[in-house]
Amino acid sequence: MTESRIYTAALVIIGDEILSGRTQDKNVSQIALWLNIQGIRLKEVRVVADDMDAIIEAVNILRARNDYLFTTGGIGPTHDDITVDAIAAALGVDVVIHPEASAVLHKYYETRGGINPGRLRMARVPDGADLIPNKMSGAPGIRHGNIFIMAGVPHITAGMLDALTGTLEGGAPLLSHQVGCWVAESEVAKLLGDTEKHHEGCQIGSYPFFRDGKVGANFVVRSTDAHKLNECVEALRLGLRGLGYDSVDGGI
């Protein structure tokens, strides 16, 4: 682990069903949280349709400016699952049947009606790829260099992330602490800015809400350094108290 530099990742969510609103994405949160633990920051997310050109463009742009690129969706057995083809085109390689993936699928479907052309599609990978184990549904995920091609179904994605845990190079994990307060964030905007400015290595996010007829906000302090994090949190609490506001440790 290299603590001195920040490792970044991007995520491309692929699927017409996401853009149409028929399916609500749940992968951004779980991938972001998992990446934080690995010491990697999720820097950007793009949602694209099941369209070759759109996928190719997103993959080539995002893989070039991040250490890692993750994709979810579009690696199933049907004709509209074109993620593998698009990423192979982006990389300038052929699509091939991965022998290990084929063997896994043949074994998985042995008691589930047998293999067929649709199911065998899930063994297709960009040439040169490795596999990401999938204990949930047989069909493996795919790794090609710094690109990780995963399922769109959240619980299957979670299993693939579990298989990748500890295998990626990252920096120091991003730590966070939340403080809540019944105050309009506009009334403490200067305090938030000044506190962050005077605590190098810390960031403060402000998340307002309206509950029970009252305005409040939760403030999340983030840092890779536990000591700096604690100092910044304490300064924020003292600053709120100095302005006449009580804070709630852990948030409201």
TrEMBL record:
A Pfam family reported for this protein in Swiss-Prot or TrEMBL: MoCF_biosynth
Superkingdom: Bacteria
UniProt xrefs under Gene3D superfamilies: MoaB/Mog-like domain
Family matches, as InterPro entries: CinA, FLAD1_M, MoaB/Mog-like_dom_sf, MoaB/Mog_dom
Residue intervals of the MoaB/Mog domain: 10-172
Signal sequence extent: none
Protein name: Competence/damage-inducible protein A
Species in which this protein is naturally found: Sphingorhabdus contaminans
Taxonomic lineage of the native organism: Bacteria, Pseudomonadati, Pseudomonadota, Alphaproteobacteria, Sphingomonadales
